[in-house]
Amino acid sequence: MDTFLELLKKEMRPAMGCTEPAASALAGAKAGSLLGDIPTSVEVVTSRDMVKNAMGVGLPNCSLKGIQAAVALGVCKGEVEKGLSILSEISEEQLRLAEHLAVSLSISSTVPSLYIKVTAHKGSSSSVAVISGEHDRFSFLQKDDEVLLSLPVDNCSSVLDESDQWLIGKASLADLLAYAEAAPEEAIALCLDAKNTNLAIAEHAVRNEYGLSVGRIASESLNQEPGSLSEAFSLGSALAAAASDARMAGCPLPVIINSGSGNQGITLTVPLAVVGSDLKKSDEALGKALVLSELVGLSLTARKNRLSALCGAFTAAIGTACGLVYLLDGDLEIMDRAINTMIGNLTGIICDGAKMTCSLKIYSCVEAANLACKLAFRGYSPGNESGIVGKNSLESMDFLARLSHEGMEETDKTILSIMLGKQT
Q1: Which of 31, 54, 159, 400 is in Cβ range 3.0-4.6 Å of 129 for a Cys bridge?
Q2: Which domains does the chain have, with CATH numbers?
Q3: Judging by beta carbons within 10 Å of its beta carbon (0-12, 13-18, 19+), is residue 89 exposed, middle or buried?
Q4: How far is CA 155 from the centre of its chain?
């Protein structure tokens, strides 16, 4: 089995709107489907990271926000078959029913970061649906007293369990680069399709007003046909931010995700699309750069929690930096320097939920990737003497993962406390 190809196929999927609300709607839809009717009341138990990532983001095709609204839309005739694109269509009846449905929400400190449990009631009947571990992985289903499915809460029940562990413990940058350079046509085609999908929402967003319009305004002084490599770098940052502007505002265009995140998928593809086009790279060369970028992003996610207090745009942009180096015909040593520069620069940038300011962070992170690439080609990068930067990129990534696991737990709690405090 081609482990990396299977991983790419598993992780790179279309999603409509932010993935935490989409997962919430999907759990709601499954609970509603099991109940077989519109419930009179719904209870939601979830993690602080799920609440944090859904609180401020707009839902596609409506003006609603938050986990409770997403669950309500799912419960009220949401289509489970659509997966993470469940919010791609919302009927007037669905919206009307959802707006009048009582949905209670409680946050549990004992569940994994990616967890949502929806319990639906009507009369003497009830149903339960739990999603955990991944945004579309059902781990528990129950109708009345009958348990229909029961899997480990925080483990994935796929053939990729062992390969994910392999990525965590053993896959080096050299391993990922070697795979990208010999990538099969299917992997290249998958990544090129992702690039096209994500570039489409970016190009749409620069022509329209969404959120803070970070990308649209940043691109105003740039030629859409860059006149230099420097301008291509800048346009890549702007278009990536524009795509996030649209996505966080609830734009009803799909994005191909990475590590369960649309913003990470955007960060890993759009800048490379712009720079690759400017360099007139072939589809094969661009595809290989994208394969490398996506795999580095997945490798970093495998080392840290999928949802945490560490901003995913930052870790994704490390993959972007590697892809940019590849497009410029750089070698493993140059990529190693670029990664160390990224970790020495932006480590500590927090995730305070999915919302309009994600586009600001994406812009900053891609600009940092551009700079890391430029410095690396000149022979510059921080070394082992610099804070949490290690003697090489693999050690630096391990230190970054340690910071995420050990050092940011209290940060995560404080972030949500601040956010919830603002609601009272």
Answers
A1: 31
A2: 17-150 (3.30.1330), 171-421 (1.10.4100)
A3: middle
A4: 19
